[in-house]
Design a protein that fits this description.
This protein folds into 2 domains: 136 residues, 2-Layer Sandwich (Fructose-1,6-Bisphosphatase, Chain A, domain 1), CATH 3.30.540; 111 residues, D-Maltodextrin-Binding Protein, domain 2 (3-Layer(aba) Sandwich), CATH 3.40.190. It is built from 7 helices and 15 strands. Helix 1 packs antiparallel against helix 2 and helix 5 runs parallel beside helix 6. The termini are far apart. The structure holds D-MYO-inositol-1-phosphate and calcium ion (2 copies).
């Protein structure tokens, strides 16, 4: 698929930008109390946008650092970009971060690529065509009980305002699952569930650039994605529960019985 090939190509080039800055001066600035931005976020995003404008001038763009650009209407399609998912990790040289590029048309994410430049792992997927990691077909895990599952999560930068809810959810999953990990890149978290390295993922306050590419990758690997109340997931909503499908109902049950 043309758009997927393009997304893979550009995600790899943007990943090279991140690798370049990994052990150099990163010029870290604060967007909020705990919300960082570095020169690598900005350069990675500039590269992706430049490549889209050259190749698809009629497409719209939604990117984390610069917002909306490209063609106005977006009828021809919209690229949804997180140039560096896991900025806090990156700024501390903790090697878990990614580039995420999704392509949406008529309200549906058609394809996406999530690239981990540190491990050179390229997750990709397109509707109806399956999903892959470095050419290996992805399939979610067979774990069928939450109690046997490894569950991923993340905390929003607004954590301090939502502390009680975030902690009670975390506590709920610590009790009910085998283990919980908070690694720090939502896009990669979705890729890991698609690959079967983890069995589920939830988070309360995400953005379209965090989830667009990962959504199609996970669904094409046989996963299920909803909001906390088991309603169909929208990348423009905030809540996400993503799983191998088999433990989904149990995950939703944990979230719905907790006060929010
Ligand atoms: C963040 C990461 C993190 C998640 C945060 C996101 P950023 O994205 O995906 O895992 O917990 O909610 O904002 O800011 O590093 O692109
Ligand atoms: Ca992000
Ligand atoms: Ca980011």
């Amino acid at each position: 698929m043309e758009y997927l090939d393009f997304a893979i190509d550009v995600a790899r080039a943007a990943g090279d930008v991140l690798k370049h800055y990994m052990d150099r001066e990163k010029q870290v600035a604060l967007k909020g109390r705990a919300n960082l931005v570095t020169i690598a976020d900005k350069e990675s995003e500039a590269l992706v946008i430049r490549r889209i404008l050259e190749r698809y001038p009629a497409h719209a763009i939604l990117a984390e650092e610069s917002g909306i650009s490209g063609a106005d209407a977006g009828d021809e399609g919209k690229w949804i970009i997180d140039p560096l998912d896991g900025t806090t990790n990156f700024a501390h040289q903790f090697p878990f971060f990614s580039v995420s590029i999704g392509f949406e048309k008529a309200g549906k994410v058609l394809c996406g690529a999530v690239y981990d430049p540190w491990r050179d792992e390229m997750f990709s997927g397109a509707r109806g065509l399956g999903s892959f990691m470095n050419g290996q077909r992805l399939r979610v895990s067979n774990i069928d009980k939450l109690g046997s599952g490894l569950i991923l999560t993340g905390f929003p930068y607004t954590m301090r305002e939502k502390m009680k809810t975030a902690i009670s959810q975390f506590e709920g999953f610590l009790f009910e699952s085998q283990a919980v990990r908070r690694a720090g890149s939502a896009a990669l978290d979705l890729g890991y569930v698609a690959l079967g390295r983890a069995d589920g993922f939830w988070e309360m306050d995400l953005h379209p650039w965090d989830t667009a590419a990962g959504l199609v990758i996970l669904e094409e690997a046989g996963g299920r994605v909803t909001d906390f109340a088991d309603n169909p997931f929208s990348i423009y909503g905030k809540q996400i529960v993503a799983s191998n499908g088999r433990i989904h109902d149990e995950m939703v049950a944990v979230l719905t019985r907790l006060p929010s």
